[in-house]
Structure formats: C-alpha cells, structure tokens
Amino acid sequence: MLSESIAKLVQYGVETELIPECERNYTTNLLLDVFKEDEYTEPEEEYSNINLEEVLKELLDEAVERGLIQDSVVYRDLFDTRLMNCLMPRPAQVQNTFWEKYKESPEEATDYFYKLSQDSNYIRRYRVKKDQKWTVDSEYGTIDITINLSKPEKDPKAIAAAKLAKSSSYPKCLLCPENEGYAGRINHPARENHRIIPITINDSPWGFQYSPYVYYNEHCIIFNREHKPMVVNKETFEHLLSFVEQFPHYLLGSNADLPIVGGSILSHDHYQGGNYEFPMDGAKVFKTITYRDIQIDFLQWPLSTVRLISKNKEHIIHLSEHILNKWINYSNEDIDIIKGSVKTLEQKSPWSLKEALGYIKKEYDVCLIDTRPVFDVLTKNALYAADVLLTPVKFDNFCRDNLTMVEDAYHELKEKNPELEWKVFANMVANVKAQKVSSADLLGKHDYPFMQSCISRTAIVDNALSLYKPVAKHRGGSNVAQDFVDLVDELLED
C-alpha cells in the first residue's frame, strides 16, 4: 500500500513538472525516509492523472496507522507539507526559472509561479474549491461576497497542544522570509513547500509570494525583507507604483496601518495584490476634476474614495501623499471631529486627550472611553481625562490579582488626577456555587469599591456581540438589558 501511494505521488510530481523524470528514484527515496521505511516494491500498475488530494489522504492515513502523526488536521497538514517538500525544486531553481520567464513577459513568470504554488499544495486547490462566492446588486454596483473556507479550523486537541507548546520567536511572523522551507510546528504552519521570489521595490529588497488562502485570483503578497511594522506614508505610494510598473497585469494595494481596520499582519510591512478586477474598479464616477495632468474621479462607493489617473508617476505620488496628510489631519468642528496627533503619542504626553475633550466638554453630558487592559500611554491619556475609572470583574481565580494590579495603578493615577474615582462592577455573574464562594471571599477580605449593580451571564450578550448590536437593541426586554440600565442609573446617580 505504501509503495503504491509513494509511486502515485512521485508520478504526480513528474506530471506537474515539479520534478524531472531523472529524479524519480531520488524522490522515492526521500519519501521512504519520511516514513522511516527501508523496503520498496515498484508497483506493476502504471499510474497517470493523479488526484493529489486522494493520494495525500492515503499517505496521511498510513502515517497515522504507523503512529508517525496524530489524526488531527493540524498534524496532517504539517506532515503532508513535509511530503510535498520531497517533490519541490530548490529556491534557486524556482527563482532562476521565474526570471527566465520574466524575460519573455511578466505574465508568463507569474503564471509559472502561481501554478507551482498550486501544484506544490502550498495553495490547497481542493480547499479553495470549497470557498463560497456570489455577487449582489447594490446602489454601488455589483458587489463580490466571499466566504473563505481554505483555512481549516483547528481541532480542540491541537488548540490545547498549542497552548502548551514552547513559544518561539523564529520566524518572527508569518511573513518573514525565514518561513521559506520552515517545517512548522503545532502553533505555526509548515512552509516547506513555500517559495519566495526576491524582487526590488523602489530600490529596496522585498519578497514576492502567494497567499496560501487565495481570497481572489492570484492573490499575492509583497513583503519587506526586513521585519518592520506597516506604515502608510509617501513611500507606500512609491512602493505600489514601483511594483505595478514591473508587473503591469497585477494590481497592488495596502491595508490601513491601524489595528482596528488593518486586518492583516501589521507587524510586518507588506502589500497585497493579484490578477483580479475588484468591484470598486467598476464603480460609478459622480464627479471628476483635473489637477495638473491628473484626472481625479470621485467614486460612488460606501467609503470616501477617489481615483487618480495620470501618466506621470511622480505627480500621482505627490498628490496621494497630499490627500493622505489632509485626511490624517482632518477636523470638523461642526460634528466634533478633532484631529489626533502621532507626535503627541511619540512625546508620551498623558494630557493630550484631556486637552482635546476640553473643546467639547460643554456639549455632552457623558463621554465613555473604552481602553485596553494595558497601562500604556493611550490608557493613561484616557484615565488622566476621566472622572471615573470603571472596572468590570469576572469572579474567577484571577480576579483578586487583577484587582490588585488595577488598585496599584489607580493610586499612581490619583497623584496626577486627584479627582479620579474608582468603581468596580461584577460581570458575567452566574448562580453557581464556586462563583458565590469566590465573590464572598473577595468582598469579605478586601475593601474594593463594588457597585450594587452587576451584569448577568447569558448567551444574549454573546449573540448581541456577534451581531454587532447593543444588548438593548438585540433583546431590549431581557433581564440582562435591564442590568445595563441599572448599572448606568447607579453610575449617574453617584
């Protein structure tokens, strides 16, 4: 059975030109070594048109039966990537072939590289086929909607194992060039069948690869060879245009460099592109103006969107930078939009938010500021501007330590903001014995400023969060909705 499955995989490698015919024996021996097998019998049957998913399943089932791996999607993915590495050309071979084909045309080069990324199972075709895609007509034109299913869910055992796994800083992130050929681990995907094309973007070294999850056709990632965070500035536009000059059949775009909207790996400078036409390209133009030799189209789109068209690259870069800076520094006193300042954060000033709120303090009764559970410069800005520090607490084994940390920070903050009050309320309260014991012990031994109101533990809150709705709008008549009303009333009374 093993010999037959290995013969099929080797034949697949020959058919897809991952390996030449002369490497058939060599590849067979590599695969035998992975299975720690000394014996091999050449099958009498000649195989052709190999289904990769089927033959990998045969080999993975064999590995499970032999006790080489656990029967889990995570361990199976690690192992089948190791198998595919036996068929892979070396990085230098891939790079040489890519640039030889580039001499003919950039499109021929990317066609080769994309097919290699699919044939090698780096892009798992059989999973990508499961993606759900459809279009919807809207006032903005035809909109693409996709549900990506090519990234498998981890099973509970793998999640538990990942928590116990030794932490590692190598590779630093999923985009670092050190991922090329990396065997992976329980908490980091295998990349043995991964290849990168070194490219130069605006006179600096970058890497060209494909996304293994393919959100759209030929979904590529262009990443800085140096591990440094994303920043959107003038260089962003220089990089984007430098790339499309070299690969004119591809688009390239940038995520925002803000965690709330950036979505992707913001710790590593990168862009995403591909061979695809997005619905935005077909959006209607409701206004056009001309600046110098640049056509500026204002698009009918859900977000504020402009399109710049010119034959002069430098003019586009300069105007793009100008628009970006205007947007970053945008203020509108009529609707109380106050521009922020990166310089303020760099100076670690704790009073900038208090000063900004001073302009609008008379216009509003209450201002709520939600902070991260970290006492960094942003949190301190919020607490120096606040009248009340409101701390939610879940009665568990960690609540005593957490409250002690908050109490220490509160006393430190009081030195700068003497009028700051501290209030604590119980969150996710359930009528269970262990919780009652924990809360009674806590309240009996410590003088924390607990409010009378508390928030019940219920699925209604989880459902409201998943729907991006306030609890009051999701289930306004529920007991937990009243809990929030009681909490606010008690807070305002005080």
Helical content, roughly? 40-55%
Helix vs. strand class: alpha+beta
Can you summarize the main beta sheet? 5 strands, antiparallel
Broad CATH class of the largest domain: Alpha Beta
Within CATH, the superfamily of the largest domain carries the name P-loop containing nucleotide triphosphate hydrolases
Number of helices: 19
Radius of gyration: 29 Å
The strands making up the biggest β-sheet line up spatially as: 3-4-5-7-6
What's the structural domain tally?
4
Your description of this structure?
This protein has 494 residues and is of the alpha+beta class. It has 4 domains: 2-91 and 116-123, no CATH class; 128-280, no CATH class; 283-328, no CATH class; 338-493, 3-Layer(aba) Sandwich (Rossmann fold). 41% of the residues lie in helices and 16% in strands. It has 19 helices and 13 strands. It has helices spanning 2-15, 24-34, 52-65, 73-85, 91-104, 106-119, 125-128, 156-164, 234-246, 259-262, 313-328, 342-346, 352-358, 377-385, 399-416, 433-445, 459-466, 471-474, 479-493, and strands at 132-138, 141-147, 197-201, 204-210, 220-224, 251-253, 270-274, 285-291, 294-299, 306-309, 388-393, 421-429, 450-456. The strands form 4 sheets. The chain has a 5-stranded antiparallel beta sheet with strand order 3-4-5-7-6. Strands 8-9-10 form a 3-stranded antiparallel beta sheet, covered by helices on one side. A 3-stranded parallel beta sheet has the order 11-12-13. Strand 12, helix 16 (433-445) and strand 13 (450-456) form a beta-alpha-beta unit. The model has no long low-confidence stretch (mean pLDDT 88).
